Amino acid sequence: MAADLSQIVKAYDVRGVVPDQWDESTAELFGAAFVELTGASAVVVGHDMRPSSPGLSGAFARGAAARGADVTEIGLCSTDQLYYASGALNLPGAMFTASHNPAQYNGIKMCRMGAAPVGQDSGLAEIRELVERWSASGAPEPAARPGTVTRRDTLADYAAHLRSLVDLTAIRPLKVVVDAGNGMGGHTVPSVFAGLPLDLVPMYFELDGTFPNHEANPLDPANLVDLQNRVRQEGADLGLAFDGDADRCFVVDENGDPVPPSAITALVASRELARNGGKGTVIHNLITSWSVPEVVEEHGGTPVRTRVGHSFIKAEMARTGAIFGGEHSAHYYFRDFWNADTGMLAALHVLAALGGQDGPLSGLVDRYDRYAGSGEINSTVDDQAGRLAAIRAAYEGRDGVTLDELDGLTVTTADWWFNVRPSNTEPLLRLNAEARDEATMTRVRDEVLAIIRG
User: For the Alpha-D-phosphohexomutase C-terminal domain, which residue ranges apply (predicted)?
Assistant: First the structure.
């Protein structure tokens, strides 16, 4: 099939419906193009539990080997396990997953050696051009010496590496409910948590890429309900929810209440700064809570504000030598994990922080969750630019108001702020608002929504 790559090549990855939008023949061309771009003599490839993943990743491996690269297949893995393999083996890598998307989707997340990201501005556009050319004119000639394809299991080494980065030796016993959403957390959690003083209550650990229980997208509150109920029923200390490829982790406290990712960012930042002698740079995107830069500065660190998106976070991590970075979407990035994101390592930090003191998680989180936030609210609009201009006109020139356009439009005062930014892929505007109290946040949120929705 000749795939319409404009439909499946996104800003940071490849993603589309299988086989309607792409199939194994397309995946094979992506494998060849990936080797052509990176010039790699060897690559590492992994995949999630979706029904189409083994075939697609195998086809990618064939394409890469035909161009002369030796392929290490690590089989079933989480995305951060693939990043581990890329970092530890110092190889470019490709992960076959569509993360939290429904079962009929699949995709490829690609990275250079050391888990450095491949996005539109860092090689993905060139890969797309090669695949389009070869789709039209035929696959390139095989290399004089085709590469080999070998299997390697990295799960135990990945788990050991994560545990080496967090001191869990003295934590008290904890009861933790984990909802893997039938995704890759069901594969990685048992190995990572092995030997820890945890009473683990597993939910939906069976690997099933048709997602029979709920979508593996914990960002949607509907997909947290089962976990919240189970935490309350079990009298557990906390709950953890992973998305489909298990690179994001969401936390609920002992009451079943969701812990904002900004509070987790602040908590982990304080711990990473302590590990580094109270010094270091911490990256946060511009819609994380005010509490994040406050906590970073209180613990001796330097906060750096960035645009939303992992390519921007990782670029700033590399530029500044940052020790940690966090996003509102529950992506957490660590210098000691090749600047890549791993929700599992963030989860270990939460377990260490909770298990290192006697109080409940809700009390611990109170130190880091200081303001009233709206969460992200999406609105479908016909004219993104026009709505943004209307918002700017409504607030520009008001006393005590500052505006900036680092990413969309951010409006800030002493008591509240909001950001409105357009989606790159859909006719949406995304609103995030925060204030010093709930009433003010509600007023600001509703005022801006009235302009957005006109």
Answer: 376-449
**Interval 315-335 mean pLDDT:** 96
Quick: pLDDT tens for 193-218: 999 999 999 999 999 999 999 999 99
C-alpha span between 180 and 189 (Å, rounded): 9
- With b for 16 or more beta-carbon neighbours within 10 A and e for fewer, the 382-399 pattern comes to eebeebbeebeeebeeee
Domains in the chain: ranges and CATH: 5-154 (3.40.120.10), 175-256 (3.40.120.10), 261-366 (3.40.120.10), 372-453 (3.30.310.50)
Cα–Cα distance between 96 and 74 in angstroms, integer?
A: 11
Contact of 60 with 228, CB cutoff 8 Å? no
Q: Are strands 238-242 and 302-306 parallel, antiparallel or unpaired?
A: unpaired
> 3-class DSSP state for residue 454?
coil
> pLDDT tens digits for 218-229?
999 999 999 999
Residue 139's pLDDT is 86
- 106 conformational bin, left if phi > 0, alpha if psi -120 to 50, beta if neither: beta
Is a pLDDT exceeding 90 seen at residue 454? no
Catalytic residues: 99
Q: The tokens of 23 are what?
A: 């199939």
How many CA within 13 A on the CB side of residue 256?
A: 14
Q: Above 60 in pLDDT, residue 431?
A: yes
SS3 of 190-248: the string is: HHHCCCCCEEEEEECCCCCCCCCCCCCCCCCHHHHHHHHHHHHHHCCCEEEEECCCCCC
Kind and range of the H or E run holding 128: helix 124-137
Give the H/E segment covering residue 420: strand 416-422
Sheet with 174-179: strands ordered across: 198-203, 174-179, 238-242, 249-252, 258-259
Summarize pLDDT for 263-305 with one digit per residue, the tens.
999 999 999 999 999 999 999 999 999 999 999 999 999 999 9
pLDDT for 226 equals: 98
CA distance 208 to 182: 5
Question: Residue 1 has what pLDDT?
Answer: 55
First vs last C-alpha separation in the chain: 43
Burial of 145 (0-12, 13-18, 19+ CB in 10 A): exposed
- Residue position matching structure tokens 């080797």: 35
| Other Cβ atoms closer than 10 A to 184 | 30
